[in-house]
Design goal:
37% of the residues lie in helices and 17% in strands. The chain has 295 residues and is of the alpha/beta class. Helix 6 links the parallel strand 10 and strand 11.
């Protein structure tokens, strides 16, 4: 695949030399069904990763609890030794139960083990960015994150982590986090239909902190909307391309990590980066999430 000249523009993570193309790739779907075990087609998963990087994607979102271990091992197989400029963002703070459940893993030892699992399975000596994942399944929970984040800040001081982010957090938790260490990104649940972070995104943009929406296309329940369908028809695009393009136009600090295990679907996602949505269609899409004239 020819490298695309436009992947949504770029954003430089604060306090770093990491300039990312805003359209990235999320590796969760490289694991088997329910993000568990190996994929049905491991060679196909490798092909997707290589295609993404060849197209100009220079940041990949992953975690060692995907699989568990599976996606990181596939990333290593596909891309190691990693090309210059590729940023791999991982996360810790959870583990998988034998019943495929998602369980908090926020004790000191669990966090240390999680970081070293990522290092080993990715084949790295230092992780570019590590997100501390807290909160509930789909959104933040109240409470201090000082104790687990302090553990990661210590590991950063030891040189095994370059930069830190947080995931599934509230504005108050971000403020607490920034008193402990520099935070380069926030990864929360957000898409054109789920808009509770609208104000948070604007505040982060003012602070030059990246916002990375997880489940940008709805996650386990894909987005469905007559407004999306109408916009897609008017723009000669797919509804999912419109949903991604809307996110890129939403704020300049938005970094996208749509995932797929299909090369064809990957190519569709990347084309969304060059899709421009006229203001009148943006207004129709804003109404999906009950936006209130923020622009």
């Amino acid at each position: 695949m020819t490298k695309q000249t436009n992947l949504g523009g770029t954003f430089t993570l604060p306090g770093t030399s990491m300039t990312l193309n805003r359209m990235g790739y999320g590796a969760m779907q490289l694991a088997g069904p329910q993000v568990w075990g190996p994929p049905r087609d491991a060679d196909g998963a490798v092909a997707v990763l290589r295609e993404a990087v060849a197209a100009g994607v220079n940041h990949i979102d992953t975690s060692d609890f995907y699989g568990p271990h599976v996606t990181n091992q596939i990333i290593k197989r596909a891309l190691h030794p990693y090309p210059g400029g590729l940023v791999i963002v991982t996360k810790v703070g959870a583990r998988r139960g034998e019943d495929k459940s998602w369980i908090h893993a926020l004790s000191r030892q669990e966090l240390i083990d999680g970081v070293h699992d990522n290092l080993r399975n990715l084949g790295l000596e230092r992780l570019d960015v590590v997100n501390l994942r807290v909160g509930g399944v789909m959104g933040p929970s109240e409470g201090s994150i000082e104790e687990p984040l302090t553990v990661l800040a210590e590991l950063k001081g030891q040189g095994v982590i370059r930069h830190l982010g947080v995931s599934n957090v509230s504005p108050a938790q971000l403020a607490e986090a920034r008193k402990i260490t520099e935070i380069v990104c926030v990864q929360n649940f957000y898409n054109v239909a789920h808009r509770s972070d609208d104000g948070f995104i604007d505040d982060l943009a003012g602070q030059d902190i990246a916002y990375v929406p997880f489940f940008p296309l709805g996650g386990f329940s894909p987005l469905q909307s007559s407004a999306l369908d109408a916009a897609a028809a008017a723009l000669q695009a797919t509804p999912m391309q419109v949903a991604l393009a809307w996110l890129l136009q939403r704020s300049p600090n938005m970094l996208l990590i749509p995932g797929t295990s299909s090369v064809e679907h990957l190519r569709e996602n990347l084309k969304a980066a060059s899709l421009q949505i006229p203001s009148e269609i943006v207004a129709d899409l804003d109404a999906i999430g009950g936006a209130s004239g923020r622009r």
